[in-house]
Amino acid sequence: MRPAAYQVMALDATRRGELNSCLNASAGAASRSRERETHMTMVREIHLKSRPSGLPTADNFEIAHVELPAPAPGQVQVRNLWMTVDPYMRGRMNDVKSYAPPFQLGRAMDGGAIGEVTVSNDPAFKAGDLVQSGFGWREGFNAPAGALQKLDPRGLPVQAFLGAAGMPGLTAYAGLLKIAALKDGDVVFVSGAAGAVGAMVCQIAKAKGHTVIGSAGGAEKVAWLKSIGVDEVIDYKAEPDLNAALAAAAPGGIDVYFDNVGGAHLEAALNSAKLFARFAICGMISIYNAIRREPGPSNLAQIIGKNIRMEGFIVSHHFSMMPQFIADLSQWVAEGKVTWKETVFEGIDQAPEAFIGLFKGENMGKMLVKLT
Ligand SMILES: NC(=O)c1ccc[n+]([C@@H]2O[C@H](COP(=O)([O-])OP(=O)(O)OC[C@H]3O[C@@H](n4cnc5c(N)ncnc54)[C@H](OP(=O)(O)O)[C@@H]3O)[C@@H](O)[C@H]2O)c1
Questions:
Q1: Minimum CA distance residue for ligand 1 atom 24
Q2: Does residue 282 form part of some domain?
Q3: pLDDT (tens digit, 9 = 90+) per residue, 200-227?
Q4: What order of strands is seen across the sheet that includes strand 211-216?
Q5: Distance from the CA of 261 to the center of ligand 1, in angstroms?
Q6: What is the pTM of this model?
Q7: Residue range 21-36, pLDDT digits in tens
Q8: Is ligand 1 within 6 A of the CB of residue 55?
């Protein structure tokens, strides 16, 4: 049963009228909000209350009410409109050193957000400017101007820059084109195929003319992936034997595996890999909540005989590809080759549920929290 705040917003960019009416609605809302009294003093933030063992629960989070003073010289006050929840944040709930620092107990969590400047004490910004920041998990904040990036929505709804046109989209693009070094004729297998990254991987590969096999949990996700052109879709939750299902979907084997999941999916991909296959290891969400470390894939030795190249990557090392990605994305959207979905929870108090929902498969496309 879906929570009351759950809604799926389909953004079919091939339907120009729908996209335009979305844009007009968002522009209208922005101008109305500028007409309102914008100075904000009290905001709510989500703090990390305790570190989870296994799947996080609502008890690991708490809401704090914080009074924002007027921004100091060189600072800007922002009201967040949207924030993202992402699987990598699960690692940040542990007190371990990693590529992203751990969240601190009793302090606000952070992550990507899109907001609107309400008060500026710096000449680089003015009230009403749209900004991207790393100050998610809160309704508003004061920050130095240098910590904010002005957002030009380029005709897209602003929240797209947390999903298809943002970090997850670039992850798909860099992982597929650079890490997996996609080449003509490749058969591509994607796990987590109906998620923010996975759905973009599927569509980029299709836009480039490849045969694509996706794996996702549940009939609704399978139907969506088929509707956007994925050639074969495995409902891994309904499949008693993932190895057999992948072998049947790709009888000649796979050339590229884009891994979002790890575990049994990685094993199946190794079994179906052709000679000289390339594996882009993007994420392993199936083990993020594991309490004990389990041994790796039992068939890993296949990388030797099959000459497989397996490479992990973190998108932040590939931000230089962003301009090329945005240029390609614009063309694919205009040609009707790429579309996306969003799963939206409303209100800062729903952010923990949205985050936990990632590990229960509650999202199709990008999981987002709408804050105003
Ligand atoms: N390397 C990087 O720089 C980078 C950047 C962004 C994301 N990532 C990684 O990419 C992956 C996808 O991220 P995303 O933001 O696009 O998330 P997402 O796919 O939109 O959301 C998570 C999805 O994972 C699936 N899932 C959850 N638990 C699972 C399990 N035990 N086994 C199999 N599938 C499970 C669920 O879909 P189903 O219903 O299909 O199970 C869920 O909807 C994650 O592993 C993430 O850590 C890596």
A1: 192
A2: yes
A3: 999 999 999 999 999 999 999 999 999 9
A4: 232-235, 211-216, 187-190, 254-259, 273-281, 309-312
A5: 6
A6: 0.92
A7: 332 333 333 333 443 3
A8: no
Q: Which residues contact 7 (CB under 8 A, 6 or more apart)?
A: 343, 344
For residues 105 and 179, membership in a common domain is answered with no
For residue 19, the CA-to-ligand 1 centroid distance in Å is 27
Give the structural domain span for 28: 7-155+339-370
Nearest CA to ligand 1 atom 46: 283
Q: Per-residue pLDDT tens for 79-138?
A: 999 999 999 999 999 999 999 999 999 999 999 999 999 999 999 999 999 999 999 999
- Type of residue found at 37: E
Q: Whose CA is nearest to atom 30 of ligand 1?
A: 286
- Indicate which atom in ligand 1 lies nearest the CA of residue 171: 5
Residue to probe by mutation, ligand 1, list 94, 260, 369, most atoms within 8 Å of CB: 260
- In whole angstroms, give the CA distance from residue 291 to residue 52: 10
Q: Is 194 in the pocket of ligand 1 (CB under 6 A)?
A: yes
CA 64/CA 257 separation, integer angstroms:
42
CATH number of the CATH domain containing 148 = 3.90.180.10
